[in-house]
Amino acid sequence: MSEEEVEARREARRRKRHKQDNIIDLEPKANENIPRVQIPSKGIRKKFSPDVRKLLYIHAGGRCELCGREMALEDVTIDHIKPLAMGGTNDVSNLACTCFGCNHLKGSAVPESFFQRVNDIFMFQMEKKYKKNVWWKLVRVILGKIS
Ligand SMILES: [Zn+2]
Fold this sequence. Notes:
mainly alpha, DNA Binding (I), subunit A, two-stranded antiparallel sheet, 46% helix, elongated, binds zinc ion
């Protein structure tokens, strides 16, 4: 078995364990030697160095790039904008700094599908709750005009 195959199997086991534990972001262990250079992936989830995490955090202005919530650097999870499962890479241009809740909710959806789903949920819930409210009726008209 080649070294690549061994690493791929190890990664598959690690991903399975994390899935069972419901952990999305793989935190680097302190004693591991993490490469500083981003290597294009072949769909394998990699660990991101503290430098990459900090860079993404600063770029995002310390906020989740999906919901806008302010968060601490240690609470950041790294989201693949285009999911690895859909051919996305581990390149920093494909990474976003997100809160755990959003990353978990987004799962392996592309941003467009995710935002459409959030929008559908919002509209459905508002409609259910405020169907007879005149302000909501007005908001619905305005939203209809801009979309
Ligand atoms: Zn968020």
